[in-house]
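Appendix B. One record, verbatim.
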Amino acid sequence: MPVMTVIEAVREAMREEMRRDSRVFIMGEDIGARGGVFLATDGFLQEFGEQRVIDTPLAESSIAGIAIGAAVNGMRPIAEIEFADFVWPAMNQIVGVASRIRYGTNGTKFAPMVVRMPYGGGVRGGLYHSQTIDVVFAHQPGLIVIAPSTPYDAKGLLKAAIRCDDPVVFLEHKRTYRLVKGDVPAEDYVLPIGRADVKRQGADLTAVTYGLMVHYCLEAARKLEAEGIEVEVVDLRTLAPLDRETFLESVRKTSKAIVVHEDYHTYGVGAEIAATIAQDAFHDLDAPVVRLTGPDVPAMPFAPTLEAEFMLSPEKIASAMRELAAY
């Protein structure tokens, strides 16, 4: 199988879907001649032309709003928000409108659209290019929220998202774009939305995570293996709908759970997972559920030392896992 980076897998997924279905088009800032700020659409303008690769003004509300109009009229738009931090002007369109179209029309209208957003820190992006905004969308019924961690998952889930009849927020951790590589099948494939994946088997404790933190948890698990501690790593992949069955099954096996995410601690995805485990697997637990997250400060600092303090690392995760294993 070809080896790809995450950004290459995203690019191939969009290219294949645009070749397969003439209703698919892409719109966003700098995606045309420049090929996108991360080169996700490099070469698309030359292949598909200006009617299907649309450079937009710096107006996220318009990007999302036009995508909704196109979607309810039979097209399948991919709307790119250049950085997740820029999505706030489009919140009414995505959360207030797109999420409610199927429900509000009694299932007579659909919004088959994908909103792609690079998110996350660790790239010296500072206050306005580093946010993790997943829980804002995962909280809203009617939206599907996907956050892949590997090239294989990114391609299969993005293709599934483009073919889906409901609006999808597709979150791509920008630090994984060129850092993470993996095998990707050359043939056409899609992955099921709403299904987690056990990335590593273990018997002593379960780590539930997604995005970049999957790789940090796997690195931490390898460190602990040398100490005789076997960590099972569950990659959620989809935040909404949440695959509760997979992580509950894992926790029932290991009896200990740590939830790891980069987003803020309070009201984060980890709180929902911890509550689910406490409700549905309480009698299987040998220790309290641990949440290891980013701190509750307004934004990612720019100074390298402060960014490192904000961000989780394999070392921080390994330390928390070690403490939980000894409980």
